[in-house]
Specification:
The protein is of the alpha+beta class. The protein has a two-stranded antiparallel ribbon.
Length: 92
């Protein structure tokens, strides 16, 4: 597995273990994470969907976000920024 984001584990506020994004995990790395009680890590996964499948997924997500924000006043700057941030997150 390859890390999709940096991994930083801390104990009592002090970094005890870290790995950079893109690092290929080894058995030793996984053991170190286990003894430090890591709960979650971000791993890179190849997106094997076609362009059409990705576009359909984006359209569904955009429709869902619009439904969630249907009663929101998007003329309010804070709400408009939140709406755009959620859309950007869903597209990523």
């Amino acid at each position: 597995m390859v890390l999709g984001a940096p991994l930083v584990l801390a104990e009592h506020g002090v970094i005890s273990f870290s790995l950079p994004a893109g690092h290929v995990l080894t058995e030793s790395n996984i053991y170190q994470m286990q003894i430090r009680r890591a709960e979650f890590v971000c791993v890179a996964v190849e997106d094997t969907r076609s362009d059409a499948e990705r576009e359909m997924a984006w359209e569904w997500a955009e429709t869902r976000v619009q439904h969630i924000f249907r009663a929101a006043n998007l003329n309010e700057p804070a709400m408009a920024r939140l709406h755009e941030a959620v859309l950007a997150f869903r597209k990523a």
